[in-house]
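Retro notes (design track)

What went well: tokenization of the new backbones is finally stable.
What didn't: we kept losing track of which sequence belonged to which structure.
Fix going forward: every design gets posted as structure first, then sequence, in one message. First example under the new rule, 461 residues:
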């Protein structure tokens, strides 16, 4: 095995050879390089998530003098979700086009656009259309997730992907409660009329993240944008099945994160300060648990963890519905925070399933060793951007459901009933596709032996 070399090429640091599935290479050199890139990837993605969720905090600063009613605030927090979800597809391909390190620098610097713009417009008298436009700009923070996950997926061997992707995503997800905590600190000290202080914290952090990425991250040279792989991923039913499941996990996490404060204000009459004292708890716990979901999936199989996770999410939703009927904030917080924890756990387990599914597909086609691993990396990398994009758009659906629910019923209960039905659907799909005992295929093998072959089992992915 030739050692990896970092060469000056295309104006950046490029690793010319990379084979994490080779255990000797991984033990002697690969793991150290991968972990270094993971650390700085987490930092950049963390700030990206903070900027993506910026308006979930800014709306708490927007009192009556802004002239934005509660329904319009739900629309406002929808805009970053929509744009961030759509950007995840091109961000996925940007890693191979520009290099993982190079794109991390670019994507970090792009975060300056929405933060600096927000500092100019966040004051009474600004038109609602302007707020919507600036809110949409923060979607660039949501795109960071796709490029970061695609990049880290390439650095790690299959046996470590669940842990690595879970840690990368979990560290990024913590950006949501981080900015909510900073918002709480500002509201409780300077008051609800100083939102620019929050922006003043993040603008220099963005510059630091870009600089550290330039100094310490690497590009992998043998990554390429395989349009054939992208087309194949789109045609794969598993891509769309996993997109559905990821709506249930990540869509829940990001949708609830953006809506938590508004739900507390509208459902239980909390003030912005009272809401800010609580909103960070759910996203924080959901972020911290995500690597655990990946670790459990590595150990017991992602499909099994995902199945039981959706059952638990349905149970937590019933607790929330009961709390709403009793007008009990305490019971509501127990159920709602449990939803955050479970969505984070499910995020880790579902993302672990993706490379495992496509690796199993390679084995089913008769591929072995590095050839099978390469096939799995090819299709899983191509599918991750699409799955991440669709999953993020689930957050848009959650906020629209809340808006309609409060508009028509003056309560979030109808929205939670719709979420309950969706978790039931995800439970059934996970069981039917990935855990149901495989039947014996009546078809002969392609070799023409005429022998029945067992269908591929995904129970351990």
């Amino acid at each position: 095995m030739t050692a990896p070399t970092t060469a000056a090429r295309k104006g950046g640091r490029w690793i010319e050879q990379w084979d994490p599935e080779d255990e000797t290479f991984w033990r002697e050199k690969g793991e150290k390089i991968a972990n270094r890139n993971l650390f700085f990837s987490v930092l950049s993605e963390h700030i990206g998530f903070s900027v993506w969720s910026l308006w979930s905090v800014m709306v708490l600063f927007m009192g009556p003098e802004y002239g934005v009613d509660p329904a319009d605030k739900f629309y406002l927090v929808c805009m970053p979700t929509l744009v961030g979800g759509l950007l995840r597809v091109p961000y996925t391909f940007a890693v191979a086009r520009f290099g993982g390190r190079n794109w991390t620098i670019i994507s970090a610097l792009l975060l300056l656009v929405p933060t600096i713009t927000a500092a100019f417009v966040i004051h009474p008298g600004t038109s609602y259309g302007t707020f919507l436009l600036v809110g949409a700009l923060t979607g660039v923070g949501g795109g960071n997730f796709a490029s970061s996950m695609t990049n880290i997926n390439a650095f790690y061997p299959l046996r470590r992907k669940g842990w690595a992707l879970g840690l990368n995503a979990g560290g990024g997800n913590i950006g949501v409660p981080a900015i909510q905590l900073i918002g709480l600190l500002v509201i409780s000290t300077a008051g609800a009329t100083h939102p620019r202080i929050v922006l003043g914290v993040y603008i220099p952090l963005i510059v630091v993240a870009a600089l550290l990425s330039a100094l310490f991250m690497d590009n992998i040279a043998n990554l390429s944008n395989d349009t054939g792989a992208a087309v194949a991923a789109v045609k794969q039913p598993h891509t769309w099945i996993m997109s559905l499941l990821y709506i249930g996990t990540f869509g829940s996490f990001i949708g609830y994160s953006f809506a938590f404060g508004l739900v507390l204000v509208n459902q239980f009459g909390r003030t912005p300060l009272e809401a800010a004292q609580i909103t960070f708890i759910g996203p924080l716990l959901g972020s911290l648990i995500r690597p655990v979901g990946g670790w459990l999936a590595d150990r017991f199989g992602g499909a099994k963890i995902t199945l039981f996770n959706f059952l638990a999410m349905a149970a937590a939703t019933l607790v929330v519905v009961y709390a709403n009927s009793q007008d009990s904030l305490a019971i509501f917080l127990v159920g709602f925070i449990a939803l955050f924890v479970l969505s984070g756990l499910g995020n880790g387990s579902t993302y672990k399933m993706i490379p495992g599914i496509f690796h199993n597909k390679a084995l089913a086609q008769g591929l072995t060793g590095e050839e099978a691993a390469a096939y799995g990396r090819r299709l899983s990398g191509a599918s991750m951007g699409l799955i991440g994009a669709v999953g993020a758009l689930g957050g848009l659906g959650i906020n629209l459901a809340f808006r309609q629910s409060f508009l028509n019923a003056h309560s979030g209960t109808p929205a939670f009933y719709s979420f309950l039905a969706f978790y039931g659907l995800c439970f059934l799909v996970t069981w039917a596709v990935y855990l149901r005992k495989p039947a014996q295929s009546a078809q002969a093998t392609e070799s023409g032996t005429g022998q029945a072959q067992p269908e591929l089992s995904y129970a351990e992915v």
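Added context from the reviewer: Residues 44 and 209 are 6 Å apart (CA to CA).
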